[in-house]
Amino acid sequence: MNVDKLIDDVIRREGGYSNHPADRGGPTNWGITEQVARAYGFLADMKTLPRSAAVNIYKTRYWTGPKFDQVAALCPAIGDELFDTGINMGVAAAGRFLQRALNVLNRGAVDYPDVPVDGNVGPVTLAALKGFIAKRGAAGGEVLRKVLDGLQCGRYVEIAEENPSQESFVYGWIANRVGQP
């Protein structure tokens, strides 16, 4: 799947402008929070955020910036998964999920060395992913994706347990995020 299709799918799921009182992201348009839009120079009312600006943010902040494009070049399903998780939970959380999963799937560092769980997908994490794919092949990519989905789902439960106001979002997060795109 290419990044433009991924972005179209996210925008379709996210919809247009929203400002739910319990949403910690505050005013959001096209799935882009006000804080993120401001970081990318958009200073107007969030209701007027152009779709093209949202697309640019998705590409730079959530695809090329965290190197999820490089992950996708090795294993498209994993790159796609990290992209979507990064949008909803932050790219560092998505990176940590990948690193944690790779560390527990390497059979005690027999298949490839453990990687630091720092959320930054760099050469060490990419090398571990290459090692995983070399050992497990395409079927391994599906297992890795299941682990990522499990970590994501578990985090949603933790968020709601830590802050019950977030319970109103859990069903939608799981229905629309886990197992996507």
TrEMBL record:
The record's annotation in SUPFAM superfamilies points to:
Lysozyme-like
Query: CDD domains attached here?
Result: N-acetylmuramidase_GH108 (cd13926)
Span-the-membrane segments of this chain are none
In terms of superkingdom, the source organism counts as Bacteria
Q: Which InterPro entries match?
A: Lysozyme-like_dom_sf, Peptidoglycan-bd_3, TtsA-like_GH18_dom
In this protein, which residues make up the domain named TtsA-like Glycoside hydrolase family? 8-90
Query: Which intervals hold domain Peptidoglycan binding?
Result: 96-178
Q: Which Gene3D superfamilies match?
A: Chitosanase, subunit A, domain 1
Q: What is this protein called?
A: Uncharacterized protein
The species this protein was found in:
Sphingobium indicum (strain DSM 16412 / CCM 7286 / MTCC 6364 / B90A)
